[in-house]
Amino acid sequence: METVENIINQVSGLVWGLPLIILLVGTGLYLTIRIAFFSFQQLPYALSLVFKKKDTKSQGDISHFQALMTALAATVGTGNIAGVASAVAVGGPGAVFWMWITAFVGMATKYSEAILGVHYRVKNERGEMSGGPMYYIEKGLNMKWLAVIFAAFAAVAAFGIGNMVQSHEAAGVASQNFNIPVWVTGAFLSVLVGLVILGGIRSIGKVVGIIVPVMIVFYIGAGLLIVILNVADVPSAFGLIFSDAFTGQAAAGGAVGAVIQQGVARGIFSNEAGLGTGGIAAAAAKTDMPARQALVSMTQVFIDTIIVCTITGLALVMSQMYLRADDFDSSAQLTSAAFEQYLPGVGGYIVALALLFFVFSTIIGWSYFGEKCFTYLFGGTASIPYRIAFVAALFIGAVVSLDVVWGFADVMNGLMAFPNLVALLLLSGVVVNETKKFKKKRQQEKEEEKNAQPGV
């Protein structure tokens, strides 16, 4: 097992080397400039769209809100609690800064993924919408071989980032806080997830539409309470995050490169901008224009990283608990200890409950992503075998080595990103054209709203 861990860690280091980091951040920056910072300008409108009345006339399977919740379900999870803790423990407080940078440019990346996901989506044999990188690579670039590569990586990656990592962290926290054996947590998750995913995307959309908003508000509320009660420590925490981002003094080996690598890798692990999953979720939404759903989709990055991950990062930096990382068996336990320090008697339970909810929703969301990629490769009849294998892997993830699980997830994430980022760059013209169409449509809507006002 030690040999396997070493091999996976070496491969992970190669995959998440400087070339991929430059490609991820560079693609996001390039797309941000190409759409003339549209993602920043429209953020308030995008957030308002989330709660707009359902679009019942347009094609699609689920609402704007449910599509966003499906995307958030898959991303607001272990990465926000354990991923941030791992990044700060290895890369130092400065890793949080690089997570922010990844998120700000990642908004344009997620926006572009969603536009292309809706633009090139198709209706499958069951009458459901299917879309994502495999479809826009095949239809937009006419590169079936590259689409197959992406789908293969993503179908396997779902077992890492969206499955075994989640069940492993949940099992660890449940064992620490509630003395529940790890195999019991694995078995429980397998049964519960199996009951939900058998109903397909409509069932998934309904479940996450209820769970995700509650769990996010619950976790953010606890984090804000810590910040408010210890507001005097907040400025110094932010100061340390900014200063360490460019010095790397707290990172392993004292290298700035380690800070950047941890921040970018865990930032992507958290919000998935660049992996292509945003396009898969967006393709299922009922929307009249690709760009409208894309705006909704990009808010996922903002909520996930700028808000939720920052809450975790502040708790870790303010408490300086990241300096004691070696004392804990898992990264989630590190975050739990930070909350417990500020909220004695309840902090650990808050993180434990939040993580369990996060894990459940993430697993559900990723089961959908993985299945869509698997059925792209092998047809609709392959969905049931994939679901069975996915549920079985939850139990395995709960009991295997943490290093193997995290390393495996990192490798698969990186391999997913390469074909998707190539497609985003080559199809950026389509993104620009759809954005122009939406701007024109939006201007017309504003004029109609103005004319409809009494006395105008």
Q: What can you tell me about this protein's structure?
A:
The protein has 456 residues and is mostly helical. The protein has 21 helices and two strands. Helix 4 packs across helix 16 (290-319), helix 8 packs parallel to helix 20 and helix 17 (331-342) packs antiparallel against helix 18 (347-378). The longest helix is centred in the last third of the chain and has 32 residues, at 347-378.
Spell out the key features of this protein.
456 residues, mainly alpha, Amino acid/polyamine transporter I, 21 helices, 79% helix, globular
- According to CATH, the homologous superfamily is Amino acid/polyamine transporter I
Instruction: Specify the CATH architecture.
Output: Up-down Bundle
Helix and strand content put the structural class at mainly alpha
Per DSSP, the total helix count is 21
Strand and helix order: HHHHHHHEEHHHHHHHHHHHHHH
**Main CATH class:** Mainly Alpha
GO molecular function: amino acid:sodium symporter activity
Subcellular location: Cell membrane
Organism: Salipaludibacillus aurantiacus
Membrane topology: Multi-pass membrane protein
